[in-house]
């Protein structure tokens, strides 16, 4: 009988590969199993191909403002949608090749569906593998209502959208979370007639009503947005009819953008002897990623906690470290950061507006309509709100939809991570003219609502110049 493996990893996505990097530093006795195409969700069907589509869409959309710069002739530009999609696939394949090279698992890589027999045995393709530790990183898949499957390949998801040689002239996007917003705006900017449907008023994962309203207003300027009840589909002459009770349209294709579901079914989690919740998930320690007190760890989209690439990679590293540690350790998690690559870009940093402790915070805001650099660049749309602890002025979080918002979101995430105060940030240099001056405006607004700065704050401010704290 062969010796048991030290670790077997189920799934070769971002979390699984991150776990593998830690495991292979510590042992040669491991296997990695993947069901379906190899290459991460991000590289194959997620963040990378979607950003390629967005870049093409934004490049074409820029023609609408060229005349304001004194540049004529933009009306002659046209989109070759099949060519756009071919470029997306070509670049996508290059990124996938990179992730496959990084896997480099050789004979230790197994293709097939894995099923747990217990906390230390896994069956793959009829063969049983025994391991001292198991890491489950099986990822997720797009949510598609079962009755929609009857429409065949006219129902698209991110798993299939980028494989299309072209698209019909009319597309409905169902769901306006981060993914739905990005796809709907990109397709609309590429000349597709887009009708978007959402059951709630919140878009792009935003919870601050002011920021949400600002982004929603911009989106409605570019394509039709229908907010109301759940969208229903039925076959009609000429296409697929989509209705939500208040609006009805007929389209050629439907993009299902209602989120992703963890791939936990048919894994045999019921053999672990722990209670599963109503979604079929076992209890997972968020700091160690351990399932109960078992030698099993769940990481990445499979745990359904933070379905973002950088979070999946972090969880993979944690699971890989703990799988070979004598005692699993708890790891502090990074400051939450989520970005939607719309225009204006939307982001949530640190504590969401909806989760702020009532009466214990103050806000600061800026409207980019009058921000200097944004006006120069013809991108003066959007809003940014920062949230600070009432007593200390420590930055708690922010929500925004702003030009180049991804960069300000990173600055804010660094500040929250370092527990900086509003006054700390205002002492930092802000160059002129840059979009980040809008961030300074929001910080100044927050500072004006805080208790009066202490003498030590003011003395430190004077050391940096009188204009550092307004």
What does this protein look like?
The protein has 13 helices and 22 strands. The strands form five sheets. Strands 1, 2, 3, 4, 5, 6 and 17 form a seven-stranded mixed β-sheet that branches. The chain has a five-stranded parallel β-sheet with strand order 8-15-9-10-11. The C terminus is likely disordered.
Helix fraction by DSSP (H/I, runs of at least 4): 25-40%
Tell me, rounded to a whole number, the average pLDDT.
91
Structural class: alpha/beta
How would you describe the shape? globular
User: What does the main sheet amount to?
Assistant: 7 strands, mixed
Whole-angstrom Rg: 25 Å
CA distance, first residue to last residue: 74 Å
SSE arrangement:
Elements: E1 5-10, H1 14-26, E2 30-34, H2 41-44, H3 47-61, H4 81-103, E3 109-111, E4 114-118, E5 121-124, E6 127-136, E7 140-142, E8 155-156, H5 158-161, E9 170-174, H6 178-189, E10 193-198, H7 209-220, E11 224-227, E12 232-236, E13 239-243, E14 248-251, E15 253-256, E16 260-262, E17 296-298, H8 309-323, E18 337-340, E19 345-350, E20 361-367, H9 372-376, E21 383-389, E22 395-402, H10 405-417, H11 422-426, H12 436-449, H13 455-463
Parallel strand pairs: 1-2, 1-6, 2-3, 6-17, 8-15, 9-10, 9-15, 10-11
Antiparallel strand pairs: 4-5, 5-6, 7-16, 12-13, 13-14, 18-19, 19-22, 20-21, 21-22
Helix pairs in contact: 1-8, 3-4, 3-6
């Amino acid at each position: 009988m062969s010796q048991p493996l030290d670790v077997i990893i189920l799934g070769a996505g971002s979390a699984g590969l991150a776990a593998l990097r830690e495991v292979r530093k510590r042992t040669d006795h491991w296997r990695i199993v993947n069901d379906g195409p190899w290459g991460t969700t991000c590289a194959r069907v997620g963040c990378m191909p979607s950003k390629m589509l967005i870049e093409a869409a934004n490049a074409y959309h820029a023609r609408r403002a060229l005349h304001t710069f004194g540049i004529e002739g933009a009306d002659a530009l046209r989109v070759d949608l099949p060519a756009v999609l071919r470029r997306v696939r070509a670049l996508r394949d290059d990124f996938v090749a990179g992730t496959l090279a990084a896997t480099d698992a050789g004979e230790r890589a197994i293709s097939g569906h894995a099923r747990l027999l217990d906390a230390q045995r896994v069956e793959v393709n009829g063969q049983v593998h025994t391991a001292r530790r198991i890491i489950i990183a099986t990822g997720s898949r797009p949510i598609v209502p079962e009755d929609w499957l009857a429409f065949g390949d006219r129902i698209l998801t991110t798993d299939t959208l980028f494989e299309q040689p072209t698209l019909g002239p009319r597309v409905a996007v169902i769901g306006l979370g981060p993914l739905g917003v990005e796809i709907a705006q990109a397709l609309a900017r590429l000349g597709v007639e887009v009708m978007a449907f959402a059951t709630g008023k919140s878009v792009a994962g935003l919870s601050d009503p002011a920021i949400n309203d600002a982004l929603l207003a911009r989106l409605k300027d570019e394509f039709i947005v229908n907010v109301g009840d759940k969208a229903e589909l039925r076959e009609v002459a000429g296409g697929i009819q989509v209705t939500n009770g208040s609006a009805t349209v007929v389209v050629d294709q439907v993009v299902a953008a209602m989120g992703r579901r963890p791939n936990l079914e048919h894994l045999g989690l019921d053999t672990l002897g722990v209670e599963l919740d109503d979604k079929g998930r076992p209890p997972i320690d968020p700091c160690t990623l351990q399932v109960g007190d078992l030698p099993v760890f769940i990481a990445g989209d499979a745990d359904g906690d933070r379905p973002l690439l950088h979070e999946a990679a972090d969880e993979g590293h944690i699971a890989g470290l703990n799988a070979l540690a004598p005692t699993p350790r708890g790891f502090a998690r990074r400051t939450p950061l989520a970005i939607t690559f719309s225009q204006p870009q939307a982001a949530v940093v640190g504590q969401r507006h909806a989760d702020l402790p009532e009466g214990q915070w103050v806000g600061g805001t800026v409207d980019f309509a009058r921000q200097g650099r944004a006006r120069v660049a013809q991108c003066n749309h959007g809003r940014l709100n920062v949230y600070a602890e009432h007593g200390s002025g420590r930055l708690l979080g922010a929500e925004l939809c702003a030009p180049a918002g991804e960069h300000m979101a990173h600055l804010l995430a660094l500040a929250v991570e370092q527990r900086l105060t509003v006054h700390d940030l205002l002492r930092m240099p802000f160059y002129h003219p840059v979009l980040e001056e809008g961030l300074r405006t929001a910080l100044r607004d927050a500072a004006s609502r805080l208790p009066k700065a202490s003498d030590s704050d003011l003395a430190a401010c004077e050391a940096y110049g009188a204009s550092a704290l307004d």
